[in-house]
Structure formats: C-alpha cells, structure tokens
Amino acid sequence: MCCFRLLVEDVYFTILGAFVLIALYASRYVLFHPWTAREWIAVADVEGKIYAAGGRDRLGEVYGDILAIDLERLRIRKLVELPSPRFGSGAAGLEGKLYILGGFDGRECFDEVLILDPAIKNIETAGHLPGPRAFGGVATCNGKLYYLGGWDGSRPLDEIISFDPDTGKSSIIGRLPSAREFVAAALLGGRIYLLGGSDDRGEYLDEILEIDPESGEVLRTGSLPSEIKRSSVAVSGERIFLLGGWEGKRSDKVIGR
Fold first, then answer.
1. pTM for the whole thing?
2. Which of 122-126, 158-162, 217-221, 246-250 has the lowest mean pLDDT?
3. C-alpha distances in angstroms, 63 versus 91, 204, 205, 223?
4. How far apart are CA 26 and CA 199, in angstroms?
5. What separation in angstroms does the CA of 253 have from each of 202, 241, 243, 249?
6. For the purposes of burial, counting CB atoms within 10 Å of the CB of 233, is it exposed (0-12), middle (13-18) or buried (19 or more)?
7. Pick from 4, 25, 165, 205: most CB atoms within 10 A?
C-alpha cells in the first residue's frame, strides 16, 4: 500500500511538473503580468519610464488607475487615480510629465487634457481639447501635443489639433483627408506620420499621411501593405514600425517603413 501511494505521488508530481514546464514555455516572452487583463490602455514613455493609464477589461469594466511599470525590477505599482475611469485615451510624455488626452468611459467622451507629475504623484487638468474625443492619434513636437482624428461619441473626426501646455490652449491647425479613428501616430524627422485607421463608413484604411506640425499641411506619402486599424506604433532610428492591429481579424504583422 505504501509503495502504491508513493507511485501515485510520483505520477502526480510528474504530471504537475509537466504542466509547470508547459506554462513556463507558453509564457517565455512575457516579462510579467499586470494586475488585470485590459485593452485600450493609454501608454507613454516619460524619461525612460513607462506609464499606463485606464483601459477596459473583457467584461466591460473600465479602469481609472495610472500604473508605473518598472522594467528593471519587473514590477507594476499603482501611482494615482484618474479623475474618472476611461479607455481609448491618448497619452504622451513631454518634459518629464505624462499627458492624458480625452478618453471614453462607455457612456461619454472627455475633452480633458490631464497632466501628471510622476515625481509628486499629482494629477490636474492642463486644459481642454476643442471637443470630446477618443481613439485618436497623439504625438509631440517642439514642446506641443498634437491630437489627430478620433471619435467624439457619435462620429469620427478629421481635425488636427495642437495643444500648448504652456498656455493650456488648443486649436485646430488642419484637417485630414477624411474623418478617421483607431489610427497610429508617430513623430519622425520633425514630421508626424499617421498610419491606417478606419473612416466614417467603418472602412479600414491603408494610407500613410505625413503632417507638418507647424502648418498643418497633410501629404499622402504611401500605403501600408494592407488596410488596418488599432495598431501600435514605434520609432527606432530612422524607421517607423507598425505592430499588430485589426484587419478583419487580429494581425501578427510587424510593418516597417
């Protein structure tokens, strides 16, 4: 009986060990897990540190926390709360501060531009956009924030907005060729590039637009390999990379320009 029990225990621990190894292998590219699974997070780098704000989980719960992500220690900590939960906001780091623009709580869009000083964990309103919006593109250039396109709660928008943190004023400096949301925006060489998205008819776009942040002039400079929206974007060296997204199904593409 004792031998049988030992044999059963050996089999049990062998199976358990196999499951552990499978789990470790499946998560080999995951650095660590946040507190909750969520989407539509506003994420930005502020002087080499990453901050994530808000988001929504698969059950529809909307979050209002700002998380500080420490990649060296593989740790996430809650830094402060937004004035109210929201997802689909824009985010950018500028001069040591984190800016959160707009967003949607499931019922209404916001026009706030919030500013967070991570050093003192203080968040306040820096100004307002011309109207409520979410799911637009955000970039920074020459000390200003730019919000492109987006959705105002009822329709996509075509506006290019400049926001001056020094004065708290925003202004419309130009318009996109068509209204669009779920776009990806990046700054390269003093120009803002807007990639993909979907228009006011819900059709996906493959356009690459180049925008002069000083004049608001917009040029079509190329096309993506496919029509895509909800992608993430990163700049490395002299190239822009588009990662993932939605093109009628989830995309695993990494597109370089």
1. 0.85
2. 246-250
3. 15, 28, 29, 35
4. 37
5. 21, 10, 6, 12
6. buried
7. 205
Q: What is the pLDDT of residues 18-31, one digit of tens each?
A: 433 334 344 445 54
pLDDT in tens, 46-90: 998 999 999 999 899 999 999 998 888 878 899 999 999 999 999
Token pair 């789990």: residue: 23
Give the pLDDT band (50/70/90) at residue 256: confident
- Cα gap 90→133, rounded to integer Å: 10
Whether the pLDDT of residue 4 is over 50: the answer is no
Single out the residue of 45, 61, 113 nearest to residue 82, CA to CA: 113
Sequence-distant (≥ 6) Cβ neighbours of residue 107 within 8 angstroms: none
The DSSP-derived string for the chain is -HHHHHHHHHHHHHHHHHHHHHHHHHTTT-----SS--BS-EEEEETTEEEEE--B-TT--B--EEEEEETTTTEEEEEEE-SS--BS-EEEEETTEEEEE--B-SS-B--EEEEEETTTTEEEEEEE-SS--BS-EEEEETTEEEEES-B-SSSBEEEEEEEETTTTEEEEEEEEEEEEES-EEEEETTEEEEE--EETTS-B--EEEEE-TTT--EEEEEE-SS--BS-EEEEETTEEEEE--BSSSB---EEE-
Contacting residues for 10 by C-beta, under 8 A, at least 6 apart: none
Surface-to-core class of residue 192, CB atoms within 10 Å of its CB (0-12 exposed, 13-18 middle, 19+ buried): buried
